[in-house]
Amino acid sequence: MSRASIVGAYNTKFGNHVKKDKETGQVSDLASLYDLMLEAGRGGLADAGVSGAQVGGVWVGSCAPGIFANQEHLAAFATEIDPEGLRFKSMTRCEDACASGSVALYDAVYAIEAGRVDVALVLGVEKMNLLDTKGVTHALATCSYWPEEGAQGMTFPALFAEYAKGYAARYGLSPEDLARMLASVSALGYRNGLDNPLAHFGKGGPSDKLGLVTAEAILGLPAEKNPMIAEPLRLHDCSLVTDGAAALVLMRSDLAKARGKRVVDIAGLAQVNERLAISKRVNMHELLAGKEAVRRAFAEAEIEAAHVDLAEVHDCFTINQVLSTEALGLSKDGRAGYDYQEGRFGRDDHAVCVNLSGGLKAKGHPVGATGVSMHALLYKQLVGEAVGAVPSKVKPEVAVAFNVGGSAVTNCVTVLRRSR
């Protein structure tokens, strides 16, 4: 079986790429869905030194472009990245909520492993800020189990709040204990985001202006600046509503290695699904399906948690970063919150650094682009071209992306290894 490697990557600037007139309510688009797709795709091909003519197929991760930007049938637009080179190539949109980007990557990997294509272009894109808060909330709610959750007014903060409550109950945490743990997670994301020039909340942004680089600073905010969204989750426990895109270029590993440098192998991957409705689940204090995805991906890559140098984990809400850290085996169950409080997982960590990009909390969360972005920025770290924060004590060889869709329903874990 052929294996797949990453040979190029690109990430657009993430942010709120619209201008809204407060008086009239008129919205001006500053970087459209199409602009973002073109920038990422062209940037990825250029980074890889690959032409559209060499690409055998294109896979596009996008969660809800029809609701967010009135554009279904989105993958076909990828032709415009290189009209002469990409015309008549296969193009497929993949949707699995916030894991859409990773699923697009996996489908491209499967095509290479099956021998159908030698080179694949993977895109992730979402344009969220054309809608107001109510519209965004509805669009995301369609990724829940609608009859029991979205239709009953259950939002995603509320769904992940159930995990937070379950975790606190399981480990006997007081509201104050949990709040401090979660604030420590937010602060790490904000600190790392300050060094990422592509981050939604980067240098000069709200988190920088408010000085939210410590748990104490976040906990000390007045209630109106950090309101309760879904108890026990507050505003600064929630990821951002973001516009952005990212791209990866994959190549059959033997062809990639023949090219020489800047090759990162996809050493193992797993996609594991949980039951869609949270009412059908047990153990709402851990990511059971996530742990199974980790087990399978690590087994395929023949690694253990101790081998991981870098991780990008899905901090759609701070509680999910805690749960993901434990699912990856980077902390023992019930201990991740304490580890974050004690300063673990930052750029100076001697063992493993988590979310050097700033994560979804600071880099931003354009839902369909997130999975591709995780892999793109880990690729850049592994080839020595880091965007933003770099590990001070670790020369990374092995990295892991843990991307989830829905309320931790679709769990995607990828092990990346710098090619030797």
Kindly describe this structure.
By secondary structure, the chain is α/β, with parallel strands linked by helices. It has a domain at 4-133 and 244-254: Peroxisomal Thiolase, Chain A, domain 1. Helix content is 35%, strand content 19%. It is built from 15 helices and 14 strands. Strands 5-4-6-9-1-10-14-13-11-12 form a 10-stranded mixed β-sheet, with helices on both faces. A two-stranded antiparallel sheet has the order 2-3. β2 (18-20) and β3 form a beta hairpin. α4 (100-113) crosses α15. The mean pLDDT is 97.
CATH hierarchy, class of the domain at 4-133 and 244-254? Alpha Beta
Report the count of strand segments.
14
Task: Give the overall pLDDT as a whole number.
Answer: 97
- Low-confidence parts: none
SSE arrangement, N to C: EEEHEHHEHEHHHHHEEEHEHEHHEHHEE
Percent of residues in helices comes to 25-40%
Subunit arrangement of the protein: single chain
Strand content: 15-25%
Trace the largest sheet across and list its strands.
5-4-6-9-1-10-14-13-11-12
The separation of the N and C termini measures 19 Å
